[in-house]
Amino acid sequence: MHIFKPSKIQTKFVSGLLAASIFLGIVFSIGFYLHMKNVLEEEVRDKAMLIFAHVDSIQHYVRDVLRPAMYERLPASFVIEAMSSSYISRTIMSPINDDRGGTIYRRVAIDARNPAYEANTHERELIRYFRANPEQELWQGYKTMDGERYFLKVRSVRFEDGCMYCHGRPEDAPPELLTLYGGRGFGKEENSIAGVDFVGISVQSSVGRVQQTILTYFAFFAFGALLFFSATNFLFRVLVVNNLKRLNSVFRRNVVDAEGSELLHRLEQGDEIEELVDGMEQMGNHLFEVRRQLQDYAENLRKMVDERTEALSHEAEARQADVHLFVRLLEDMRRSGSRSELWSLALPQICTRFGARSIAYVCTMVSRNYYVWPESSPSPELPENMVEVLTGSACLQSGARVFVPVESSSGNAEGILCLYWDTEAEAARHDQRVLTALGRQLGTAAENLTAIDSLLRQMNVLETIVEGITDPLALMDANCAVLTVNQAARQLTSELTDGERTDGNMLAIFFDPQSQRCPMGEAIRRGTPDLREVELPAGRSFSLSMYPVRSSDGQTDRVVVYVRETTMEKRMRSQVWHSEKMATVGKLTAGLAHEINNPLGVILCYAGLLRQTISDPQQASDLNIIERHTRQAQRVLQELLNFARPKAAGSGTADACSVAVSVSEVFSVQAAKKRARLSVDHPAEPLLVRMGIGELEQVLSNLVINALDAVGEEDGEIVVRVAPMDGRVAIVVEDNGPGVSAADAPHIFDPFYSTKAIGAGTGLGLAVVYGMARDVGGEVRVEHSDLGGARFVVLLPSVTNPESDTTQLRKE
């Protein structure tokens, strides 16, 4: 007769599981609450620091930018709306107190200038705290104000040197402040604590969010627990209770005597486990019969020991091979520069160590790349439960295959290592714990390679940015040592030191880094940029900018040095000034020439009339002298008019080669008389320039005349060269005379400036040459000649249209 009995083991299991779930739920809830509270406190602190950062940026902008600009434009006025950092920061930050978000910002003081910002009771306590602890600059904590709890972040406000103008003596302060506030806010001392910046953030709304989150969590937990208990109850009955009943039924079927019936009646009084235990006791009775078989095993003990010793020896050899494999993998990781290189080195060694037929690695990231060895092997087949393999951190054997999860040091899945053998037995004889450790080591190696590759890419990006700057740029430390430098800085240091230095240390060229007055050291001490112009003895000038850089600990210990050459800019400014000066002189000389030319014409007219009426030879000789000097004066005036008269740029074209030859032939007689050599060097084909023949002849004549006046007797040498140069035509006249000194070079093209003896020149020849060349878009410069004297180079625009050239030549 079957006795009915409830499933006690299931009831005990579910009850214990329920108690454990409730306990864990309470522990997790408390931990979650503390975590959420900590997160919200961090959020409140970050919000307070953000407000402080906003206030600091406003005040720095007012002090460093707005106030200096107002003093520059309104030096005699003090506009509080644009020059008071406290007034502006309070005005900008006032909406924080009105947005009903539970945030308070106040900048208050004791004896505040504006009574509206006088410190209240809480704020006075904080000010007294900072005065009692002057080394403290920040206080934070919780306080209850007006019945509501706030998180406060307060920092002290000190009077600095720049504050004494408005808060020191009333007689030194702007009169606008005295008009607005009377005598309040004065008489402060430097470095004294004026007040506090006060930020308060209500935590009431934050606590409400925490409570709402906890309630939501409990609701989800209760619903999940209900589903979990239902599923667990069902699975426990199917997998445990039913199997226990089947096991107990085995004992019942094998008991047929009266003693067995009494035992079954006694077993049914307990639960399934007790029934199973009693059944096992009955099975112990049968073990006694096995003792005889143990005696047989004892006789074969030596053989079994030998077999076990041999097995242990094989296992030791396997462990030694595993150690060698791990060492080789570490060496491969050190040599590898990428993941693909790591797998190409590691897979053959792993496959050889475990005697596998083939091996493959599959990356489970987005790329889904895979690597196989031997390379002729087919693509790997992943298991259907791949996610369980990756998350289970354990190997999986499927037939003759073993899948090993490859995990990083943080537990993230990197991929799956697949090993293939010929038989299932070969796959099963390997220790899966060793394979799991191997997967973790490979994952760590891949993770390290990824980190190194990311670091190298970031360094390459930084190097590309620095090298992309065409001007010299360098990052230097406080000891004037170069940390980072671009190629432009290396080239500049090599150029300025004639190749002796290529380290890019530009400051060592401009200043003495060991000097106490080194501008870089001063910039670091001030913490502000240093901008200046420096000029080298060779005449090259540079714009030097030094920008201090703060490190992560807030100290200024590095400087960014930026250099830009300004030599050409200064030269262009000098040329512009020279052109303006010549234009002014031209206008002056034009008016003067017209006023003098008329009396000279009258003198010549009356001299001609007198010549018709006199017959005395002495009087005729005197008239010749008068006429000769009058015409000399007219010629000087004509040169002045030619210099000052506006000309049409590019009014004609001329062949520079033929004009140079003709001018040389004209002055060859004068050169021969002075026993000087005059030669012309020009190409065979014509070189057409945008200047009329007459103007070009005048330019060449003035240059040749100057050269003839400069060279000495019997050993003079003058060379005229015509050649194309950079899309233009260069006309060069050089001699072996004394040349042009450095003091005369800046003024050589000025009107009436002459280095010749008094009466030997008018000082207008080179000025006329300069003006004519400039009018057609050309330029003139003076250099030192290889012959020892001066070289004048005239660069004129080239004409490239043959038909237009021919027409212009016919017009000339």
Structure, explained:
The protein is α+β, with helices and mostly antiparallel strands. It folds into six domains: 12-209, no CATH class; 258-298, no CATH class; 307-455, GAF domain (Beta-Lactamase, 2-Layer Sandwich), CATH 3.30.450.40; 469-565, PAS domain (Beta-Lactamase, 2-Layer Sandwich), CATH 3.30.450.20; 571-643, Orthogonal Bundle (Helix Hairpins); 647-811, Histidine kinase-like ATPase, C-terminal domain (Heat Shock Protein 90). It has 24 helices and 21 strands. Strands 6-5-9-8-7 form a five-stranded antiparallel sheet. Strands 11-10-14-13-12 form a five-stranded antiparallel sheet, sandwiched between helices. Strands 16-18-19-21-20 form a five-stranded mixed sheet. Helix 7 packs across helix 9 and helix 21 (656-673) runs parallel beside helix 22 (693-710). The longest helix is centred in the first third of the chain and has 66 residues, at 8-73. The radius of gyration is 51 Å and the shape is elongated. The protein starts with 7 loop residues before the first helix and ends with a helix. Pfam families: HATPase_c, HisKA, Tll0287-like. One of its GO terms (molecular function) is ATP binding.
